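Sharing a chain and its predicted structure for anyone who wants a worked example. Both blocks are below, sequence first, C-alpha coordinates second.
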Amino acid sequence: MFPCHGWSKKLRDQKIKMANDIPNLLMEEIPNLPKESISVIFYDNPAENWIVGGVTEIL
Protein backbone atom coordinates (compact mmCIF):
# COMPACT_ATOMS: atom_id res chain seq x y z
CA MET A 1 0.00 0.00 0.00
CA PHE A 2 1.25 3.46 -0.86
CA PRO A 3 1.10 5.89 2.10
CA CYS A 4 -0.82 9.12 1.43
CA HIS A 5 -0.29 11.18 4.60
CA GLY A 6 -2.66 13.92 3.51
CA TRP A 7 -1.34 14.27 -0.03
CA SER A 8 -3.78 15.40 -2.69
CA LYS A 9 -4.88 12.77 -5.21
CA LYS A 10 -2.85 14.52 -7.93
CA LEU A 11 0.32 14.54 -5.79
CA ARG A 12 -0.25 10.93 -4.73
CA ASP A 13 -0.69 9.87 -8.37
CA GLN A 14 2.50 11.75 -9.36
CA LYS A 15 4.49 10.05 -6.60
CA ILE A 16 3.13 6.62 -7.57
CA LYS A 17 4.17 7.26 -11.18
CA MET A 18 7.66 8.36 -10.08
CA ALA A 19 7.96 5.36 -7.76
CA ASN A 20 7.27 3.12 -10.76
CA ASP A 21 9.39 5.07 -13.26
CA ILE A 22 12.56 5.40 -11.14
CA PRO A 23 13.24 1.64 -10.87
CA ASN A 24 12.59 1.25 -14.60
CA LEU A 25 15.15 3.97 -15.39
CA LEU A 26 17.72 2.45 -13.04
CA MET A 27 17.22 -1.03 -14.51
CA GLU A 28 17.76 0.36 -18.02
CA GLU A 29 21.09 1.89 -16.95
CA ILE A 30 22.38 -0.86 -14.65
CA PRO A 31 22.51 -4.31 -16.25
CA ASN A 32 21.13 -7.21 -14.18
CA LEU A 33 19.71 -4.91 -11.48
CA PRO A 34 16.57 -6.61 -10.18
CA LYS A 35 13.54 -4.41 -9.51
CA GLU A 36 13.19 -6.04 -6.09
CA SER A 37 16.49 -4.47 -5.03
CA ILE A 38 15.22 -0.89 -5.48
CA SER A 39 13.10 1.04 -2.99
CA VAL A 40 11.77 4.53 -3.59
CA ILE A 41 10.77 6.27 -0.37
CA PHE A 42 8.87 9.55 -0.26
CA TYR A 43 8.59 11.68 2.86
CA ASP A 44 6.48 14.77 3.48
CA ASN A 45 9.68 16.85 3.29
CA PRO A 46 11.06 16.44 -0.28
CA ALA A 47 14.60 17.03 0.97
CA GLU A 48 14.28 13.71 2.82
CA ASN A 49 13.24 11.61 -0.20
CA TRP A 50 15.46 8.63 -0.91
CA ILE A 51 16.11 6.14 -3.66
CA VAL A 52 17.67 3.05 -2.14
CA GLY A 53 19.15 0.25 -4.17
CA GLY A 54 21.49 -2.62 -3.81
CA VAL A 55 22.24 -6.14 -4.86
CA THR A 56 23.45 -8.93 -2.61
CA GLU A 57 25.15 -11.93 -4.15
CA ILE A 58 25.52 -15.10 -2.13
CA LEU A 59 28.74 -16.89 -3.02
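Comments welcome. The first strand starts at residue 38 and ends at 41.
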